[in-house]
Design a protein that fits this description.
Its main location: nucleus. It comes from Neovison vison (American mink). The chain is mainly alpha-helical. The chain contains 63 helices and seven strands.
Length: 1305
């Protein structure tokens, strides 16, 4: 990445002054401060050239703020020079950045003369002196310099600078190879902003008095149009009267527009010269000639796509400028047909599509003329008439329709209805693509096909229009469209009548049956739109009737006028009686009480929909209506039953089961509206649900009951059968082949070598042809059968996904219903099967929805069943069954679902007594802890759980988890069990403790330690134990952990390392518990074991991955009162220095001294110990001691006489054992002896031969506090320097002074 503009290394060589104004003047005194002290100022110029726009703008603002704070300083001159230099950098993206910054600078500081800036630009980038290789950057530097002057807003006010800039642009225009048409475009932009008087003076200098020159390029033509608009008299005086739209000038205009279209090919915008020509033609009244000869017969004939896109953009830009009489000229010609062909053929992903851009043009036009509905309607209708063999090219859902005014929208809907009834094919702008013309068949592409395609599109456009109207609350228009669709779906007119406006609508082409099917499908789509949220129409139904009620009333009106209207499928007597009974039931539902109003509303909606479906499928809907009416009458007369015992009584009416079957039948239909209605109705009747009704729903999810072919055995048998069928087909083929060859064998064993005659050969060919045709039919039949089975499976899965809606409603609306408990195993079966065969997206959707219902709506629900009734024993059996199944699964993720189901059942068995029994005793414990026994608390915490039944279930599962090699159970499962049921956790703790050590695998031992480590700190578990019992438990676990720690540091495999880490983690948890609760536990054994393993945990002999093990070890030692020695870190720095590898040198820790300082420090090693060995004198050279130092001295000396025991003397270096590394006096002073159980334990760093003064150990452990060091922690951390400050501090000062002398040369 090249540096922006002017590098600092070039600054001293370019000029003596920062601004570069003069090289012969005196050198500035502050050049060093400007370029070196203000690094922030120089960074502005680097940020200005960065590609990020936000960074450039921010840097420009900061630069201007910096310069405003120093208006008279040299920074402004330097900034001006730096920006001018940056205009000619080699990076093309940086030039506009510097140009914009220069424009902002000139705009902020108006005292800078523009002429001098322009002169500096020409001098810095002199086109006469620049080398040939640097010509292109110099040209662009001059161009961007002029643009910067123009963007500052001051150029049009300075006539002298304006003339110089125009002259410079004219010179730059000669270098067409590098700059193309950019100078001319800049000149037009500048002159468009100048006043008319200035333009009148400059015009003779920039515009030649030659029409050929004017029509030579888009820029000259644009300049001509600008002059004709602003100074027409001066232009007429200069060139004379000019008619651009004459016969001889039109070909030139076409060429100029084609050139302009090619110049904006990448920008994809409308050239300004084209829009100016359009406005000129409108002003002069020559728009028809311009549009016909220049656009349609000129540019379109070029067969050049940029020219076509220019025409399309010109069409969009012309819409706001044209009147209602001029719109048909542009909307019915060759251009609009060419646009429609582009809409049809531009289908490839990488192909440019102009439709979104045209939508923006039309949307802007409709928004801008909302007060002119006639023009809006004319444009929308004109675009709708662009058809490809009768089918409009626009999509049925067009967003711009939302911008229509209400009057224009009503007119558009009326036009669509008229087009549906009486299509006018002659008024359409119809076309056929080249491929369609090649494959044209007059018998297939008649007017009937075009009418069908047009009517199909129109009815879908009507429905999509209602989607936009739904938000605008145009209720009358919605009802009109719904009545129109309903009438033409199911009725036909016999005799027109004024009472039904739809009967007065006549067809010019008869309505075909396939068209009525499309209208029927569109009608139910419309019904879903208006009925999704029970949309109300306050103007027509003030009592709050749903939308479908209007349609039912309209249908009843049509049935009552049998002389004028007849249904396409006439009703039988039974169907008409069902319709009448439905209307009577609706009246009864309207008269229901306020309590049953919600349920009555749901039933009303169901009746409305089934009643409307009576016109589509009369036989099925008639039976459904009778069943629904019976269910409604019984449901409104019954009270809800919640418990299982009441629901199972034989007096329970079967209406719920019948209604569930009806809802399942509705869900089987591929209608989203029916799915919503079934969900709504079931939410009101699920309170009456019976086990038999629930079983009807669950049978759909069961593959055996729903005839699903997911069974592997069945699939294998079918495959075997198909394979055997193929074998038989081959054998049959061999037999047929033998028969076809005249009875001979295929293997060539025929004895005769006679040749067949012509007749025999012909017969043989016919036999072979029939044989292969039959075999081909067999293969095709087999493929069709497979496709049929696949489609049936897809439909079955989709039906199961829909039925899950009912289960979701049940667990959401009735979570306390005992029937919810029967959903666990069926849902788990669905999850298990879907996880096994979740290959397709549909299977994954079924799995995700079932898992979401099971996890979020069932297991994590706040409400659950509190009244189990007589099914208590069955629930315990179900818990055992679920836990066993969880242990048999092959995947832990699947096992988790079964385990969560068992936890949910435990929650149900436990009931909600926990919150009422545990919280109150906790308040009483503060006043008297003896009043609440742990046994009573445990009994109340267990609630309704029978521990004698539950404990063996989970005990066997826990044993299996801690013994099996590959168990699907995991530690989080049992931790969740322990946290939710601490009483059960108390019963399972012996099983876990048993597997902490012994014959268990290291991985299982680690899992047992983790379980204990996470379970012991919980407060709920502690409340289940008495104090002696809890202390005994902790001691028992401590013994097990101590036994594990005897092999600490000997791990070879990953599982053994994990076992060591888990054991140390559990030990730290136990020590923390002992310390916090002040338990009386003997810790001498574990301390001895840990001290014996210290040599194995030396950092030098261990890998870096085991640092966590060392940290856990010393954390435990710290809890036992032994501090971690600091000498290990120092030895790690100094001792391995001789054999230190280059890799370890690179990885040295941050903060270590460099090697140079270490070498200088070795020279003083002989003097430093001598200074430390001097005795402390009370007076003399020492400074007077302050009170703070006396306090430090007392703190350092006080602990040595604690408990009446004399301080331990510092061992001599020669008395240490070889295994113990030599330590400095400072580190040895930090390691004070610690006490365990009243005795002083020997420090790990102490020599083995010396005895430490001890006290006799008591018979039992320490009571009250856990063993700690005799020295407090803060006091133990005090260094020797703080205890005798005067000696060592003076020595440290001498060392620093000597180091400073050594650094100086």
């Amino acid at each position: 990445w090249a540096p922006p503009a002017d590098m600092e290394s070039r600054v001293p060589a370019e000029s003596a002054s920062p601004g570069g104004a003069a090289t012969s003047g005196p050198r500035p005194a502050d050049r060093e401060g400007l370029l070196q002290q203000s690094r922030e100022f120089l960074d502005f110029f680097w940020d200005i050239a960065k590609p990020e726009q936000e960074t450039r703008l921010e840097a420009t603002e900061k630069l201007l703020a910096y310069l405003r704070a120093r208006p008279q300083g040299p920074e402004r001159k330097y900034a001006l020079k730096r920006l001018i230099t940056g205009l000619g950098v080699g990076r093309e993206t940086a030039r506009p950045c510097y140009s914009l910054a220069l424009a902002q600078l000139l705009q902020s500081f108006e005292d800078i003369p523009l002429c001098s800036v322009l002169q500096q630009i020409q001098e810095k980038h002199d086109l006469q002196k620049v080398k040939k290789a640097m010509m292109r950057p110099a040209l662009f530097a001059n161009l961007f310099g002029v643009l910067a002057l123009f963007q500052s807003g001051r150029l049009v006010k300075d006539s002298e600078a304006l003339l110089k800039s125009v002259k410079l642009l004219q010179n730059l225009a000669q270098h067409h190879n590098h700059l193309q048409e950019q100078p001319q475009k800049a000149l037009v932009d500048i002159l468009s902003e100048v006043p008319a008087a200035t333009l009148q003076a400059i015009l003779p200098k920039v515009l030649k008095a030659d029409l050929n020159s004017v029509l030579g390029s888009p820029e000259h033509l644009e300049l001509f149009l600008l002059a004709q608009q602003k100074v027409p008299e001066k232009l007429k005086e200069l060139i004379g009267p000019v008619n651009l739209f004459s016969d001889e000038n039109i070909p030139r205009l076409v060429n100029v527009l084609k050139t302009a279209a090619a110049s904006v090919k990448k920008e994809r915008k409308l050239p300004a010269v084209a829009l100016d020509l359009l406005r000129l033609s409108l002003r002069e009244g020559k728009f028809p000639r311009f549009w016909k000869e220049v656009v349609e017969q000129g540019l379109l004939k070029k067969q050049f796509w940029p020219a076509s896109y220019l025409c399309f953009r010109l069409l969009g830009a012309a819409l706001p400028l044209l009147s209602e009489e001029q719109l048909p000229l542009v909307m019915q010609g060759d251009l609009i047909r060419h646009f429609g062909e582009h809409m049809v053929t531009a289908k490839l992903p990488k192909q440019f599509k102009f439709a979104p851009e045209m939508n923006e043009y039309v949307g802007a036009f409709l928004e801008g003329c909302r007060d002119d509905p006639e023009r809006q309607l004319a444009v929308v209708v004109a675009f709708t008439r662009i058809t490809n063999q009768g089918l409009p090219v626009l999509p049925t859902f067009w967003r711009v329709v939302r911008s229509l005014s209400p009057h224009a929208l009503k007119g558009y809907v009326a036009w669509l209805q008229t087009t549906f009834l009486r299509p006018d094919l002659d008024s359409l702008v119809d076309f056929s693509t080249s491929n369609q013309k090649k494959a044209q068949d007059a018998s297939l592409h008649g007017p009937e096909r075009a009418v069908f395609r047009l009517r199909k599109w129109v009815i879908l456009r009507l429905v999509s229009t209602v989607d936009a109207l739904h938000a605008e609350k145009e209720d009358d228009l919605i009802e009109e469209v719904a009545r129109f669709c309903f009438f033409h779906s199911f009725f036909e007119t016999k005799k027109p009548t004024s009472q039904i406006p739809e009967t007065e609508q006549q067809f010019s082409f008869p309505l075909e049956s396939r068209t009525r099917e499309v209208v029927s499908s569109a009608f139910f789509s419309l019904l879903q739109t208006v009925s999704t949220q029970f949309r109300l129409a306050p103007a027509r139904t003030p009592d709050g009737q749903p939308w479908t009620h209007r349609l039912v009333q309209f249908a009843d009106l049509l049935l009552s006028h049998s002389r004028n209207v007849t249904p396409l499928t006439p009703f039988t007597t039974q169907q008409r009686q069902a319709w009448d009974r439905m209307l009577q039931t609706l009246k009864e539902l309207e008269a229901c009480s306020a309590e049953a109003k919600a349920k009555a509303s749901a039933f009303q909606h169901l009746l409305f929909l089934v009643g409307i479906y009576l016109f589509k499928s009369p036989a099925e809907s008639c039976e459904l209506l009778a069943d629904i009416q019976t269910c409604i009458q019984k449901s409104l007369g019954e009270k809800p039953r919640r418990t299982r015992s009441k629901a199972a009584t034989p007096q329970e009416p079967p209406w719920v089961e019948v209604l569930v079957e009806i809802l399942l039948a509705l869900l089987a239909q591929p209608s989203h509206l029916m799915r919503q209605v079934a969900r709504t109705v079931f939410s009101h009747v699920c309170v009456h649900l019976t086990p038999r009704a629930l079983q009807l729903i669950l049978d759909v999810l069961n593959p055996e009951k729903s005839a699903d072919e997911d069974n592997v055995v069945v699939t294998d048998d079918s495959e075997k059968q198909s394979e055997s069928g193929e074998v038989r087909a081959r054998r049959g083929g061999r037999v047929d082949m033998g028969w076809a060859t005249g009875g001979g064998t295929v293997d060539g064993e025929d004895d005769g070598d006679e040749e067949l005659g012509d007749e025999a050969m012909m017969a043989l060919d016919q036999n072979l042809a029939s044989l292969f045709a039959e075999q081909k039919l067999r293969i095709q039949a087999r493929r069709d059968e497979k496709n049929k089975l696949r489609k049936e499976k897809v439909l079955r899965r989709d039906f199961q996904i829909r039925v899950l809606d009912l289960i979701e409603v049940l667990v959401t609306k009735q979570p306390e219903n005992p029937l919810v408990l029967e959903l666990l195993e069926p849902l788990l079966d669905v999850i298990r099967r879907s996880m096994r065969t979740s290959s397709s997206k549909q299977e994954q959707d079924l799995l995700h929805k079932t898992a979401r219902i099971f996890t979020h709506h069932l297991c994590r629900s706040r409400h659950y069943c509190h009244d189990v009734g007589r099914g208590l024993g069955a629930l315990y059996a179900q818990v055992e069954r679920l836990v066993q199944q969880a242990g048999r699964q092959a995947d832990a993720s699947l096992s988790l679902y079964y385990f969560n189901a068992a936890l949910y059942l435990l929650r149900v068995l436990k009931g909600n007594s926990t919150a009422a029994t545990v919280c109150k005793p906790q308040k009483k414990e503060k006043a008297g802890p003896k009043k609440s026994r742990p046994q009573e608390r445990g009994c109340r915490a267990s609630g309704g759980l029978d521990l004698s039944l539950v404990t063996p279930i989970f005990s066997s599962a826990l044993t299996s988890f801690l013994t099996k090699r590959n168990s699907p159970l995991t530690v989080p499962m049992f931790l969740s069990l322990f946290s939710r049921h601490p009483v059960l956790c108390k019963s399972l703790l012996p099983v876990v403790i048993q597997h902490v050590t012994g014959q268990a695998r290291p991985r299982h031992q680690a899992q047992a330690c983790v379980l204990l480590q996470k379970a012991l700190p919980t407060r709920e578990l502690r409340l289940c134990f008495e104090d002696p019992e809890w202390e005994q438990l902790v001691s028992q676990i401590l013994v097990k952990v101590t036994e594990n720690l005897r092999t600490l540091g000997e791990a070879q495999s990953k599982s053994e390392q994990q076992q060591e880490l888990s054991s140390l983690g559990l030990l730290n948890t136990l020590l923390r518990t002992i310390h916090q609760e002040k338990l009386t536990v003997d810790l001498t054994g574990v301390l001895g074991v840990l001290q014996s393993q210290q040599q194995r945990l030396q950092p030098g002999g261990r890998s870096a991955s085991c640092s966590r093990l060392c940290n856990l070890y010393w954390q435990a030692m710290k809890a036992l009162g032994v501090q971690r020695p600091k000498s290990e870190k120092k030895e790690a720095r100094e001792v391995p220095k001789v054999t230190q590898s280059p890799l370890s040198a690179k990885r040295k820790k941050k903060g270590f001294l460099p090697e140079t300082k270490k070498r200088k420090k070795r020279k003083l090693e002989g003097a430093a110990p001598a200074e430390e060995a001097k005795p402390t004198a009370p007076g003399g050279d020492q400074p007077p001691s302050t009170g703070k130092r006396r306090r430090r001295k007392r703190k350092a000396q006080g602990p040595t006489q604690a408990n009446g025991t004399p301080a331990t003397k510092r061992p001599a270096p020669e008395a240490m054992t070889p295994s113990a590394p030599a330590k400095t006096p400072k580190l040895q002073e930090k390691q004070q002896p610690s006490q365990v159980n009243g005795a002083r334990a020997a420090s790990p760093a102490a020599p083995a031969g010396r005895k430490q003064p001890q006290k006799d150990l008591p018979e039992k452990g320490v009571s009250g506090k856990s063993p700690q060091s005799a020295l407090p922690r803060k006091k133990a951390r005090l260094s020797l320097a703080s205890r005798s400050p005067t000696l060592l501090q003076s020595g440290a000062k001498r060392k620093k002074a000597s180091l400073k002398k050594a650094r100086k040369p």
